[in-house]
Amino acid sequence: MTSTPAATLPGTAAASAVGLTKTYGSGESEVRALDSVTVDLHAGEFTAIMGPSGSGKSTLMHCLAALDTPTSGQVVVDGTDLGSLGDKELTTIRRTRVGFVFQAFNLIPTLTAKENILLPLSLAGRSPDHAWFDTVVDAVGLRDRLDHRPSEMSGGQQQRVACARALVSKPSIVFADEPTGNLDSVSGAEVLAFLRRSVDEFGQTIVMVTHDALAASHCDRVVFLADGKVVDELLRPSREQILEHITALQAAAAARATRATGATGTGA
Ligand code: ADP
Predict the structure, then answer these.
(1) In a domain, 154, yes or no
(2) CATH number of 19's domain
(3) How many whole angstroms separate alpha carbon 28 and alpha carbon 193?
(4) Does the structure show a pLDDT above 70 at 262?
């Protein structure tokens, strides 16, 4: 039997943010993209991060994935405090412990599907686990497409190659940034079904940033950000519950903005 990818025990955190703050600029032009965010991303769970544009979703994901460094606070991935690591060690963490799926697929156009899937392992100088490679390729339904280049595949097929690439190194956590944002609804549903299956059957941990309530309804947990803070979460929500929640958060944000405008007297 093929071993499962997650090294972390279910119920524990595959990644955590502790008092995570990220600011850009300084003085009057300072932007607080993250404002003391503390959140555990549980191993073996599919978590969605939602929130309005500018609420800090990308910044949080980039800090958790070791692609960006916080101004203060701590990021722990797989039990390792990223703040204690140098550049070389951070590169190793990104290559070996973290998988990525991007909205724009980000495949290498000159490589075949198989070569794209194996690229992270090649870069890390690791040899593939052939049984695991076969399991992942069959799970995404790409067996008969392995010799095709990205230009010879549909968007949905390319994103399934990207999903396989993310999983093949058995990362502790996969970060998916709007993975269905460029796909039609049928291809999007196939990608979400694969991500769900990789959590349920392979014990993978996945964190997905999405604007799409239907996509988030595939998740075990939805964490809501607003103004750089975690403001709420829902467990196993339906699409309708997520939509209701987003509407309530938008109304609260509009009320805050109205109060702020009224308080400073700069409205209209
Ligand atoms: P989201 O992903 O929810 O849309 P982001 O994390 O991209 O939010 O951005 C959060 C806030 O940080 C926004 O106000 C954004 O303008 C700001 N921000 C993000 N990246 C930068 C940057 N490189 N320089 C300056 N401000 C940034």
Answers:
(1) yes
(2) 3.40.50.300
(3) 45
(4) yes
- Whether residue 5 is contained in a domain is answered as no
Residue at token pair 């690439």: 165
pLDDT confidence of 258, banded at 50, 70, 90? confident
Q: pLDDT tens digits for 49-93? A: 999 999 999 999 999 999 999 999 999 998 999 999 999 999 989
Question: Which DSSP letter does residue 3 get?
Answer: P
Mutate to test the pocket of ligand 1, among 20, 28, 50, 59 (most ligand atoms within 8 A of CB): 59
Alpha-carbon distance 138 to 91, whole Å? 29
Question: And the tokens for 223?
Answer: 């964490």
Distance CA 88, CA 10 (A): 29
Is 31 a pocket residue for ligand 1 (Cβ < 6 Å)?
yes
**Domain for residue 7, yes or no?**
no
Task: Report CA(35)–ligand 1 centroid distance (Å).
Answer: 12
Query: Does residue 8 lie in a domain region?
Result: no
Number of domains observed in the structure of the chain:
1
